[in-house]
């Protein structure tokens, strides 16, 4: 595990991501949604638009809410607006999470193409969840599936998410975390608690507030 503390962790991660992508013939990258990666995608689209062979990169979704892609809550909508529409060379595969078969369909796609992820970009909630693997949910214990439709009772909803067996099989696993509301969870994860602690040997890109500084 390595921890990189930076006042602008998204900028530091963007720099490292481009450097990593440029070492690969083709890169399969799974990305999360939410407000924190939005900053990362904006930086990639503006400052690194011509810094990488983006035509060699395929974007996958780590997780998605069970809403249409036009919904304001859709992770895909944000990824599309901030990244894919700006770097049009990128290839991508959407989780059609509004469909009941979405988890099965996405897993079939991954298995058919024998995808091994080069990089998974993860976030972490104040409750220590990552992807859509929330505390106390059945998806935490999945051992065989690559993607599941995970019931999240505390939010009264379901989400489609990659599972730990698939996330942890990636060559690299990087967290991007910002905000003082994450500090308690970050410290607990370092002690082996909460779902995010189940990701082995991650790189943490965090701002000072996220580690209680």
Structural class, by secondary structure, is alpha/beta
Mean pLDDT: 97
**Strand percent estimate:** 15-25%
Number of domains: 1
Assigned CATH architecture: 3-Layer(aba) Sandwich
Counted by DSSP, the helix tally is: 6
CATH third-level topology: Rossmann fold
Radius of gyration: 16 Å
Strand order of the largest sheet: 1-10-9-6-2-3-5
Task: Describe the main β-sheet briefly.
Answer: 7 strands, parallel
Helix-strand string: EHEHEEHEHEEEHEHE
What is the β-strand count? 10
What's the CATH C level? Answer: Alpha Beta
Globally, the shape reads globular
Helix content: 25-40%
How would you portray this structure in words?
Strand 7 and strand 8 form a beta hairpin. The chain has a single domain, classed as 3-Layer(aba) Sandwich (Rossmann fold), CATH 3.40.50.1360. The protein starts with a strand and ends in a 7-residue tail after the last strand. The chain is an alpha/beta fold. It contains six helices and ten strands, in the order βαβαββαβαβββαβαβ. 42% of the residues are buried.
Summarize the entry for a quick read.
The protein is of the alpha/beta class and 213 residues long.
Feature tags:
213 residues; alpha/beta; Rossmann fold; 7-stranded parallel beta sheet; 3-stranded antiparallel beta sheet; 6 helices
Task: List the topology elements.
Blueprint: E1 2-5, H1 9-21, E2 27-31, H2 35-47, E3 57-61, E4 63-65, H3 75-84, E5 91-93, H4 102-112, E6 119-122, E7 147-152, E8 157-162, H5 164-167, E9 172-177, H6 183-190, E10 203-206
Parallel strand pairs: 1-10, 2-3, 2-6, 3-5, 6-9, 9-10
Antiparallel strand pairs: 4-8, 7-8
Helix pairs in contact: 1-2, 2-3
